[in-house]
Design brief:
72 residues; mainly alpha; 3 helices; flat
């Protein structure tokens, strides 16, 4: 699951940065991760999906709160 978080963070970085070194790091790391993910059992893949999804939502809420986009 930690690998999936790292992939997610790399993808966010590449969206906001034009530095080729970030993209190169992503490419070198992403393909082995995808092979490990594909070889995992369906149950583990589902857990990774759920964890990544809820983690992403939590990060978005925290960022919105920090920017003041949410009002109670």
């Amino acid at each position: 699951m930690a690998d999936s978080l790292q992939v997610e963070n790399y993808l966010k970085q590449t969206r906001h940065s034009q530095h080729s070194i970030i993209r190169l790091g992503l490419e070198q790391w992403l393909f082995p991760y995808l092979r490990r993910y594909q070889s995992a059992s369906p149950q583990v893949q589902f857990k990774i999906f759920l964890f990544s999804h809820f983690y992403g939502q939590k990060v978005e809420r925290v960022l919105e709160d920090l920017r003041g986009d949410r009002y109670a």
